[in-house]
Amino acid sequence: MNQAIRNSWLVAIALFALLFGSVSYVQFFAAESLNDNPQNKRQLLATFCAERGAILVDGKAIAESVPSTTDCKYLRTYNDPQLYAGLTGFFSKFGGQYGLEAIMRDELTGNSDDALFDRIAQTFTGAKSQGRSVELTLDSTVQQMAYDMIPDGVGGSIVAMNPKTGAIIAMASKPSYDTNLLATHDPDVFNASMTDIAAMPGINLRGSAAYTQLYAPGSVFKIIDTAAALESGKYNKDSVLPNPAELSFPGISYTLPNYAYGQCYTRNEASFAFALENSCNTPFASIALDLGQDSLTAAAEKFGFNDSSLRFPDVVEDSRFPGSQGVLDDPALAQSAIGQRDVLATPLQVAMMTAAIANDGVQMAPNLVETVRSAELKTVSTLEPEILRQSTTPEVAAQITDWMVSVVDNGIGSAAAVPGVKVAAKTGTAELGQLDDFGNSLNNSWFTGFAPADDPEVVITIVMPKVDVATGAQLTSPNASKLFKAVLNK
């Protein structure tokens, strides 16, 4: 009798183990292939009709699932959609998912690997599957301020980040769109909205222009020239640089002119401080010709150029130096050294480059997600700062910081000043070879900098594309000052 009970007990244990193993296999090992099966229409409806976790900024939902009166029980809804569209993306029954909705979908649906035992428990209890909420690193006040600074019809991007942790404080771009128009359960509304949005000039449904759009960086690239020069051992803080009004090249009529709007024309030789304060072109072009393309490329790559692996967590368009030209002749190398020709960068890359200088030469990985929480508000994961690379030495970073402070104190970045705070900065004007309706040359106008310079808390990077010099000056350095004050509570 005891043997029969023992055998029955062993059979029960085996059946339970088999059931547990089967559930575990389906929930963990086979879930992805079953979910991706195109014949799994039930999964398709469940995915787009289920309640997903919220995306939060300062504890408030900017994306959430709300009850719906359609066949789907829930509808994805976005609050302040245009402010955050470039980051959240959208989640649609007809258009799929983009941005954080796609990148963080496993967390938002409760299907991440660390939620395995929760899913197994739900299988036995019959409890409703619940997604997890994703809290972003953004400061809603700074995000709104940055967005409002970008004029409608002009476009542009602003990035604010913590150089010590890589946390994104703000990332705003225009043009933007209403993500609610694409989250609809009505196919006619979706198709009409998609047609209208896709026709908007400069729109990018893949993500914010701050990390998906490439721009000629102009003179902000001179930060890398300076790092390359100091690291080479051929230059130091006391070096005297040639500063002619233009740089000529043997055998061709082309000349590279000096920057026309600072004080570059007042002297034929310049210190590093003076060259950066006034954004003189010819000294940095001369440095590039002296060091050579390989040295400049190596320096650029130490700051993150040509890196196609960057995630934050979405895929970041890789910034490029020297571009697709291969070996450069002297005129092309001179142009590339001042951020022209085929050199291209995202605003996020320029912010990361600047953050490396601010952080003693250490470049941190950018990050937008601060915490992931369970439906019971238990913290599942928290942002852990990650070092990407040592971009330059602490000594070089400190020297460049001093010169960037001088750009604000004595140079063309003075409008970025904050009373009582040392601000380090570099401006840039990338010529596009285009004219507006009034005959003014169009440029990409840049600002990048950090504060306080002696203990950096925030990096601000601004780009306003296709504007004239006067408009660019109004939209960059003065706005940077306002953002510094907002973050530092000044």
Quick take:
This protein is of the alpha+beta class and 490 residues long. The protein has 19 helices and 19 strands.
Strand share of the residues? 15-25%
Q: Count the E strands.
A: 19
Average pLDDT rating: 89
Shape summary: elongated
Contiguous low-pLDDT stretches (5 residues minimum) are 36-41, 119-127
How many helical elements? 19
Strand order of the largest sheet: 3-2-1-6-14-15
Helicity, as a percent range: 25-40%
Rg over alpha carbons:
27 Å
Could you characterize the architecture of this molecule?
The chain is 39% helix and 20% strand. It has 19 helices and 19 strands. The strands form six sheets. A six-stranded mixed sheet has the order 3-2-1-6-14-15, covered by helices on one side. Strands 8-7-19-18-17 form a five-stranded antiparallel sheet, with helices on both faces. Helix 11 crosses helix 14 and helix 13 crosses helix 15. The termini are far apart.
Question: Topology of this protein?
Answer:
Layout: H1 2-29, H2 31-36, H3 41-49, E1 55-57, E2 60-67, E3 74-78, H4 81-88, E4 91-92, E5 96-97, H5 100-103, H6 105-109, H7 116-125, E6 133-136, H8 140-149, E7 156-161, E8 168-174, H9 187-198, H10 209-212, H11 222-232, E9 240-242, E10 246-248, E11 255-257, E12 269-271, H12 272-277, H13 281-291, H14 293-302, H15 330-337, H16 347-358, E13 362-364, E14 369-373, E15 379-382, E16 387-390, H17 394-410, E17 424-435, E18 441-451, E19 458-467, H18 469-475, H19 477-488
Parallel strand pairs: 1-6
Antiparallel strand pairs: 1-2, 2-3, 4-5, 6-14, 7-8, 7-19, 9-12, 10-11, 13-16, 14-15, 17-18, 18-19
Helix pairs in contact: 1-7, 8-19, 11-13, 11-14, 13-15
